[in-house]
């Protein structure tokens, strides 16, 4: 399956532009943005424990509170429109998401976009 972790640079940039807002909204709605901010300055075991705790809350929110947004974002990361994503199993989408998350450069790129968007809309608050 084609996804952001295995596409060409031109495809990556064009698709990233398409999903920028969806990713920022998902990060905010699930609490992922807040969780990542809470990791700043932490190292070692303290960072790991805090990340695992936050990840559980983010997963609960992604699956229970905003499943439509989660499915939409997973589909867009795989170059699928929402109606096309329905033709794939969740296992396929999650496997692709796992591959994408395993690419630190891709993950960091989305974090940077979310941070820039937050700074743009909040005048730099929350840095």
Q: How many discrete structural domains?
A: 1
User: How many DSSP-defined strands?
Assistant: 0
Kindly state the percentage of residues in helix.
over 70%
| Straight-line N-to-C gap | 36 Å
User: What kind of sheet is the major sheet?
Assistant: none
Task: State the shape.
Answer: globular
**SS content category:** mainly alpha
Mean of all residue-level pLDDT scores:
83
What is the compact description of this entry?
This protein is mostly helical and about 130 residues long.
Please tell me about this protein's structure.
This protein has one domain. α1 packs antiparallel against α4 and α4 packs across α6. The mean pLDDT is 83. The N and C termini lie far apart (36 Å). With 127 residues, the protein is mainly α.
